[in-house]
Structure formats: C-alpha cells, structure tokens
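Case study 2.
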Amino acid sequence: MRSYVKSLDPRLPRDVYVLQFGGLLNAFGNGVVIPFMIIYLHNVRGISLGLAGLAAATQSASALLSGIVAGTLSDRIGARRVLFAALTVATVAFALMPTIRVAWQAFAIYAVWGAGSGSFWPSQSTLLAGLTPAPRRAPAYALQRLTMNLGVAVGGVAAGLIATVAHPRSFDVLFFVDCATFVAYMAVLTRVRAPELHPDRGAGRWREVARDRTFVAFTVLNAAFMAAAISLMVELLPAFAKNVTHVNERQVGIIFALDSIGIVVFQLPIAKLLEGRRRMKGLAAMGFVWAAALMLVWVAGAWTTATAAAIVLCGAMLVFALGECLHGAIQAPLGADLAPPRLLGRYLALSSLSWQVGWIVGPAGGGFLLQHAPLLLWPIAAALNLVCAGGALALERRLPEHVRLTPLGAGSAG
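Prediction:
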C-alpha cells in the first residue's frame, strides 16, 4: 500500500481524500455484512434460497425508486445533503436486521435498505464528480474503487472470524458494526465541502436523459453485466460456497476478501494500462475475464468440495477482480464524461440504477437456479457475459469521438 500512497495525485482536491476516507470506513462495514446476507436469511433464519434471492431483488427494486429521487435532489439541493439522508436510512435498515424471523420481515427491511442504498450511490458519485476537475475524474474514481475495496476486504476477513451459523447472535455483531460505519461516514461528511450547484439546475428534466439514446444503451449494457456477473458473485457465491461446495464461514470471508484485495492490488496498474486505449474494447475484455471466473466457480462446484473448493473459488475471485478493475477504470468516468454538467446528478443516478436493475434480475433469477440447479447457473452467466462483451464492441461506434479513448494520464494516480 505504501507505493499507492506515494502515487496518489497531489492535484486531486483535499476534499476528495476526505470523502474517500469516509468511504473506506463505510466499505469496511459493507464488507462485514454483504458476504453473509443470504447465508443469514437461509442458514440462520430458515428462509429458502429462492425467497432470499427475491429479498435481495426487492432491495434493488426499492433502490430503483429512491435512486431516481436522489438523482433529481442531487442536482437541485446538492449531493452531500442527499448522501447524509441515504446513510441515515441505511443505518435504520441494518439496525432492524436482527429482528428478521420470517420472509415478509426480510422483504420489508430489505426495502428500507434499498431506499438508502439507492440514494447512496448516485449522491456519492455526483459528490465525487463535483469535487473533482473533469480531467482528473478517472484517477479519483480509481482511488474510490481502491479504498472501498480495501475496506470490503478487511471487513470480509473480520466477518469470517466473527459470524457462524451455530451462533445466530454473532450476526447481530456484524449488523452493529455496519451501523457504526454509517454513522462514522456521516461524521466525515461534515468535513467535506458542498460543491456549488449548477445555475440551471432547476431546468433539467429526466426526459432529456431518456432522449440520450447512447447513454441509455450504455446504461442497459452495464445493467446486463451487473445481472450476469457482479450481482451473482456478491449475492449468491457465498451461499453457493456454503451449501453446495461445503466451504465454512471463515473460508467464505477469505474468498470474498480476495476479490477486494485483487482490486486494491491491480486497480491503479490497470487504470494506467488503459491510458489512450479504447474504452469499449476494455469493457469487452472485462466480459471475457468475468466469463472465465464464472466457469471457475462451476469447476469448484462440479469437481471439488470443502478446502479444495475454497482454493478454486479463491482463484475465481482473483480472476474476477481483474475484470472489476477494468470496470472501475471505465464505467464511472465514461458515464460522467457523457453527462451535461447541469444534469450530472440525473445521469449518474441512471448509471447507478443500472446496478440496481442488475441486482434485481441477477439474484431473483439466480436464486431459483441456485436452489434447483446450482451448477447450471454459472455456465449460463458466463455465456451472457460473452454476449455482453459483443454488445460493448457494437456500442463503441455510437459514442462521441472525444470519449472513446481513456484520456492520457487519466489512469495515473501520480
């Protein structure tokens, strides 16, 4: 990490580093709970895998609605205020998680969680873009991806040492820690200035965003990647590892953490490698890398078990992390570059909604496949990623000429 600290760009504003520190704290809390949410619902509370997947989809459906509101409010009243509100709602949701006993309670609390998370991502992305000069957004978003995944990695390992299905109250500890990190992030936000609002912020309309067919197509492509890749690896892989390959909780925490560790190690070098290269070609390469990782998950379930399966899944996660580094260096900066300044909040809200759509489709469909045909899930997802890779290449010619390449120097964090 020392080399990364030395390489951070001094031209990034101080507020960007303060914001990223808060994100690091919050990411630690996310890493503590996210790998174990489906395990908590299924193995602790006895809710079927299919219904647990639908609960995760409910969270994303709720986030769809709150994300639209958050995008509008970020443009009109400021992203920092919206981020405060999002963190407050998320704190309430995770404080209620220990009360879940039956499926309907999970659905209700996940809906509250979705209201917070759906507002969190567009407001945070808009705040980061507003604090950063346009030519330096790529290293700012790369730094965001690095710090958040560092927090998730440490949180995942810590959670693996704490949580065990034999002691349900150990999961209450995870929820308490996550709530504490939300509060800590709110405290850090008081040290971050609020960017000036655009003078024409009241004139913007969602229909202007909807008329940008290129951006809408880019958003749909990202939703497809989310559904066929990230949502499955985050939401369903831990339950697959626990219930199909018989990996224990501590190993689940390590597997999940390795994804984030891989991003911490490779994010900045890959961002540097992409300088001056075609962005959509990079997204296509991401699809191939993710397809390979998903097939490794299938290998773990079809040919190994217990410790051997854990080793294969660790390899799958490291491969998957390489694809996430490509995504982190391309998707968010490109979305911000395509947005008119007065509509930045709405554009980034739509970009965030693509994640939510993916998190609806992926866990909902994947959860039932995981319940009835767990080994079929991963080859299907791999094939879909290859289709999405072709879609990325096809979309390139529709992009404005000036955004097709990653700017020279954009990947350099120093």
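Residues 1-9, 410-414 have pLDDT under 50 and may be disordered.
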